[in-house]
Design a protein that fits this description.
Blueprint: H1 11-55, H2 62-72, H3 83-115, E1 133-140, E2 146-156, E3 163-173, E4 184-189, E5 197-206
Parallel strand pairs: 3-5
Antiparallel strand pairs: 1-2, 1-4, 2-3, 4-5
Length: about 210
Amino acid sequence: MADETTEPETPEETASIEETAAEAPVEEAPAEEAPAAEEAPAEEAAEPAKVEAEAAPEPVGPKAIRQAKRSTHTGEARPTLTPEERQAARQELRKAKAKARSRRRGQERVKRAAAGPGVGTPPTEHEPASAQTRQGIVTSTKAAKTITVRIDIAKRHPKYHKIVRSTKSLHAHDEACDAREGDTVRVIESRPMSATKRWRLVEVLERAK
């Protein structure tokens, strides 16, 4: 039991313990100052980001405007409105839209008046479109009063800019049975004359040799 008892500390040992306790915080002080030094560059980096945000162009178009509004939304919930307040807000929005429409239509009327009569005004009545014409080579005259015409099509590909060639056959009405195989003819659109005939012979441009 005598071995387990601790001897009382001497004054010299107490003084050495107090000195070590006083020196410990001094060594940890630089560690506390380090984060402050690290925060300074973060603040400096935030300033260019603010400048870039201010210099960014304004969104163009309804979709871009909606995206910009969503990005600036803080996430706070909207205040709860009563049905009467919602109806009043709807009516105010409708009045604002109606005023904007009337202002835009007035501007359009002024532009049409300045452009002159007949410019930008819609047609008063429907005008029939002109009938399409095609030029091709007769490949068959076996059917009565009907010829089969081969139309050669050559178009430039919109992406690869290569000439793409294709052919298309159509049936045309030949009342006088004037066309022969190999003739170059011109046909025009007409009313449906049978299940497959939607064209009519106009003239024979070149006879087959």
